[in-house]
Structures are given as C-alpha cells and as structure tokens.
Amino acid sequence: MQSLPLEPKIETPSKFIVRLYAAIDDPNVKSIIWSRHEASFLILDKEDFQQNVLPMISKTSEFSGFIRQLNAYGFKKRNNIDVNVREYAHPNFIRNRFDLLTKLSRRSTGIIKSESASLQNNIKFLNESNFRLTSEVLTLKNKVEEQDKKIKTLMEMFQQMFNMQADKGDGLGTGKFSERQLDYKEKKRKSPKYLRDGGANQHDDYNDFF
C-alpha cells in the first residue's frame, strides 16, 4: 500500500504576536498604535493600555510582565522624542507584513539569562574601567599639584637670591660699588701725582670718584 505524501506543516505565529498585532491595528484602540513609519508601535497611555488592552493580549495583567514577553520575542525599545511614549520594534513586526509574523519566536529562558549575564558582565567591566580611569585622573592631578608646589618653591628661592644680590649692589660701602671705590683709591695712591703731592687732599678721594 502506497503511503500518502505528508502535507507540509504550516507555520503560524504565536497567539501573543497575533493578539498584539490585532490590538495595534484596531482603530478603536487609542493607547497603543503603529508608529508613523509602521515599523514599530507606540504605547501612548500606559495606564489605559494595562487596564483595557493588556488583558486581551496576554495572561499577565502587569505591565512589567508584558515587557518581559516583548524581550523574550526580541523586541527592542527605541528612544522617542516624547519621554512619556514607549516605542518598541522588531525587524519582522511590520504593518501589513503578515508573512513575517511567523519568524517571531519566543527565545528560551536559558538564552535570555545568558544575555542578561553577559550584559551584567559588561556593566561590571565598564564600572571597573571607570573606577580605574578616575583613580588615574586623581593620581595625575596630585602629581601636577606637587609639581606646581616645587616650581613655586624654586621661584621663591630665585627671588630671594636675586634680592640678596640686589642688596649687595646698593649703598656706599657694600657690594660691587664699594669694591670699585677701593680699587679707584688704590690706583690713585700709586699714581705719580698722588705721591708728588704727598697724599694731599685725601678727603677728596671720594668726591674725585664721581
């Protein structure tokens, strides 16, 4: 007896996806609608959606449970200009593309947990990197402050040395000016004119210097 050929298995989207699509496509539902480009949907009123629409889509009555279901099917949240509007999208969830709905499958709990663990590890790595960078910045800041203190100390020392040199060069009996006076007097005493006059007018030595 010849066996009959098996009929091809017809894939159908999950009830959750069908009900979600129907609710968004229903013109009487105002709390959840298609976006302008019809490749994502918007939840305009969370409270109204949770009370009046969510019970028709899912067994859960909690909005957080609905979000977990979206994540399980691979929906991604998008940033919307209006912070009060929640927008979600999936590349196979597009208006009037019923043929794509069968490609939306619920991921296993193990995959979700694995992705969650990977995300947690990434967050931990970023926190550790941020801590290291903060420590390095503080260390560099301390080094710069220490360097500034050393430079300030050196500048003060140079200023003191400069002031001391300036003090030695002032007055009539000190520093370089005094040495010039003594040198001038010594040369004058050894001059023939000074010896011939017998050292007369010695009190004019200072005035002669000028």
From TrEMBL:
GO molecular function annotation: DNA-binding transcription factor activity; sequence-specific DNA binding
Gene3D superfamilies cross-referenced by the UniProt entry: Winged helix-like DNA-binding domain superfamily/Winged helix DNA-binding domain
Keyword Nucleus in annotation: yes
Keyword Isomerase listed: no
Bias (Basic and acidic residues): 177-186
A Pfam match: HSF_DNA-bind
Transmembrane segments: none
Segments for region (Disordered): 169-210
Recorded superkingdom: Eukaryota
Subcellular location, record wording: Nucleus
Coarse class of the protein's main subcellular location: nucleus
GO cellular component: nucleus
HSF-type DNA-binding domain ranges (all copies): 12-107
Record keywords: DNA-binding, Nucleus
UniProt record similarity statement: Belongs to the HSF family.
Name of the protein described by the UniProt record: HSF-type DNA-binding domain-containing protein
